[in-house]
Amino acid sequence: MNGEYRVQVAESVMVRGNHVRGELPIIGIGCPFNPNPSANPGGLKKGGYILKKIHILTITLLLLVSFVASSSVAFAAFGDVALSLGSRGADVKVLQQKLNTLGYWCTADGIFGSYTQKLVIKFQTNQGISPTGTVGKITSARLIALTTSTSTPTPTPVPVPAPDSKGTAIISTAQQLLGVPYVWGGSSTSGFDCSGFTSYVMSKNGISIPRTAALQFAAGTPVDKANLKIGDSVFFTTYTAGASHTGFYMGDGNFIHASSAAGKVTISSLNSTYYSAHYIGARRYL
């Protein structure tokens, strides 16, 4: 059988009324194989033709699948996804290019490092946006507006309320403490717990509030989540019932707090699974 793999389907095949014995079909091809080429040369030609067609079709399908797969890997448009410290990719590179265009010089390497974060904070401060260091919808929209030139009139952008100056000052003070270690009962720059952090920052801005999260929650003016302003205190129920964790709202859905989980003063999203589930309210002392 010359080393070829064949499956005998029938003892014999009837061809045009003649009983031709010993013919075996080639696997996957719907035509018989005759070990005597001179007896059925057309069958061999037909089989070879079909094999060639199948080979071409297979290659075409593989190329099509490869094209579709590669085309399906798409990047979100700039501004669709929030960017922050540690982000990487094409959107970060677009961000850095826009910052360069506006005179905030940095290497457009697609890596959102600490230097890029500093430039973002500087841009946000100059534009009257909450200086969170995170590029959310408000910041990205402003970057796009300032770096997009067109000969046709552009729609008037939706006005963004200027942040309260006192609230901005509170966030500015809080950001200077990023990375300070978390220490249970701490209320100094050597270490903070959550309420020690908020009371310390408030005192630096001339505002006196109670020491514990529960007492801070009991004071101040209640604020709906939809009406949060920069500098408002946000509260969560964590290890015990009632207000047991707190931080400052920064805008763009973020807040800054002394986190026991992170082990330091850090920035988190109110929309994260954990904090959105444990959020219980906000207070305004300004």
Question: Could you characterize the architecture of this molecule?
Answer:
The protein has a six-stranded antiparallel sheet. Strands 1-2 form a two-stranded antiparallel sheet. A two-stranded antiparallel sheet has the order 3-4. The relative contact order is 0.09. Helix content is 36%, strand content 17%. Helix 2 packs across helix 4. It has 286 residues and is α+β, with helices and mostly antiparallel strands. It has three domains: 61 residues, no CATH class; 88 residues, PGBD-like superfamily/PGBD (Muramoyl-pentapeptide Carboxypeptidase, domain 1), CATH 1.10.101; 120 residues, endopeptidase fold (from Nostoc punctiforme), CATH 3.90.1720.10. The protein is built from eight helices and twelve strands. Strand 9 and strand 10 form a beta hairpin.
Please describe the structure with a list of short key phrases separated by commas or semicolons.
alpha+beta, 3 domains, six-stranded antiparallel β-sheet, endopeptidase fold (from Nostoc punctiforme), 8 helices, 17% strand, 286 residues, Muramoyl-pentapeptide Carboxypeptidase, domain 1, two-stranded antiparallel ribbon, disordered N terminus
